Amino acid sequence: MTTVQIGLERLVSEERRFLSGRRVGLLCNPVSVDSDFRHAADLLKDLCAGGLIRLFGPEHGIRGAAQDMVSVGDALDSDTGLPVVSLYGKDQGSLRPIPSTLEDLDVLVCDLQDVGSRYYTYVWTALLCLEACSALGVEVLLCDRPNPLGGVEIEGGRILPGFESFVGLHDVPTRHGLTIGELVGLAAAERGAGECLRIVRMTGWNREMDFEATGRPWVMPSPNMPTLDTAFVYPGMCLVEATSMSEGRGTTRPFELFGAPGIPPAALARHMEALSLPGVRFRATWFRPAFQKHAGNDCGGVQLHVTDRRIFKPLRTALSLLEAVRRIAPEAMSWREAPYEFVSDVPAIDLLAGSTALREALASGGGVEDVLALWDSEAAAFDERRAPHLLY
User: What digits encode the pLDDT tens for the residues 181-195?
Assistant: First the structure.
């Protein structure tokens, strides 16, 4: 039974006055549905009586078919017949809507599902849209949705100046414990872009809830986020994207599977089990990705089995895995050198970590405890900083 009413549902049932007689754009993707799986585009098209004139799509496209870091072009939406502006094209400039796509709008409705990790690009698409709209006086109605990981736990460090990117445009910890509305609201306030923002709040959600507690159906927000289990490991295991090892893309358990050719699964599993990390077990396994890294090749590694989400620490777990591979099979791991999210002059691992601290700690042969201690202190400072922006 659904216990939480999301912002989209409140907009169409209680707050439709904000749309009446106005020219409307919609930032959306496949997750932009209500509890009956009715898509926001269909709801607004009927509600606005012709006032919905344009759609905007984030990474993966408006229908969620494209893989990660695959550019998507502008198009006509086959379901609604509306023009679609892609906000994930071939270069960094494509991430922000250009004025000509906004100038004939009175309001832009944003309805996207974040997954509780700062790497996930949808929240930054929403923020860039807000900044572009603010420059033109276009109102933004951001329909809030639950943080699937809950709103209590914070984990990970800050983003130092010079390390901002599309996997972290504003200085927040990796696992930030905010809803998409709270995160955009915080960033907008600190960047001076909040005047045009109106957040359509949820009802029935509290910070202790993970997604299952909301009673809402899980809809994949992107091709490699198939389950809630994926979302819980993602804050840590996304770091593997910055290495030559597989994060499980091309398998049915992305981010839960981890490995590469040359890694001895049994040895890695024994090492990780001996650490007794909270809320997680490690099973030695082989897997063969169907696409992306090591496609068609057998990878040795482990599968993460989260046994208690309440105490599981995804960042600590991932850093421990990276450190373990450095000790057990160093030849199997190298850092990604190719451009990452349109950035070519900063290593991907530094963009994801927010600084050089993690890469330098592993390179020195030392442990990651100092990095974790630093991140814990930065997370504690953020807990105070976010307090004025909490909506629930």
Answer: 999 999 999 999 989
